[in-house]
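Hexosyltransferase
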Amino acid sequence: MSKSPVFEFLLLLLFIVIAFASNATVSTAIPQRFKEAPQFYNSPDCPVIVDGDESDGGQGSSILCSDQAVHVAMTLDTAYIRGSMAAILSVLQHSSCPQNIAFHFVASAASNASILRATISSSFPYLNFKVYSFDDASVSRLISTSIRSALDCPLNYARSYLASLLPLCVRRVVYLDSDLVLVDDIAKLAATPLGDDSVLAAPEHCNANFTAYFTPTFWSNPSLSLTFANRKPCYFNTGVMVIDLDRWRDGDYTTKIEEWMELQKRMRIYELGSLPPFLLVFAGNIVPVDHRWNQHGLGGDNFRGLCRDLHPGPVSLLHWSGKGKPWARLDANRPCPLDALWAPYDLLQTPFALDS
């Protein structure tokens, strides 16, 4: 009995689907498509940085090592790529010298870096950037489960390894999470004075209940709780930081953070992902930055992601830390009021978008 053309077509389609599925882990294609962003130009008083040849898929090899550039570090993955694209656009749009910004993207070694690189280049053809590979295995063995699974992603810990991932010529960097947008010139934040010996600067929140970030096991152990003796520790969010990488390298702070993570594997001293080790090493010893540079918590808490209002005062950076992300709430047609401030930076190419 001969097979019908319809049956043969369906059989062929089935083989194609099976072949695609078997290679899905290799290609790790990004399902979204993004629009090309406008090109942004320096104002006349910006310093001129002589550009070099393209390097590793990014542009501007000279600027990637220049002390005159503003260096920005971010992680890059398929799950948060939409947020990353919005963050990049916001940085460029509000910068007085956008051509003098060098982006350093850290991606998991298990990801398809060429696809991530092509996605960035497609929307930002003139961006000065490089993608660095982060070996998940280097930190996976140290990660303890936290209150939200997203916080346990190895890439979430990459901020602790920037000093070794980025070239030695990068001496200072602004680290940014992917769930934020700037509405001010990032050069102002990057120029934060770090004094004679401080390693990093970030907005501090001394009204927060600092003891809540560690377990009773930690506070009941005198040898541990004395960690903060002679310090006035305050909570700070690690999604926005200015870091002196030279001082970080000299002090071997990655090792100090890893030592606390190793202790956490033996005895539960905290619950919240990559934040507590930073607090243990740096809280009370950072340069405080105006709160306007991290209006955080707009994603709600780590459980329900409820809507929140802005903190009182001026705003230079909006940060959707917490469970709720603006793109997810907008797609679900359940946005919070402040998600409307993120939407103008969304470069997602919708199926129904018409070229004007």
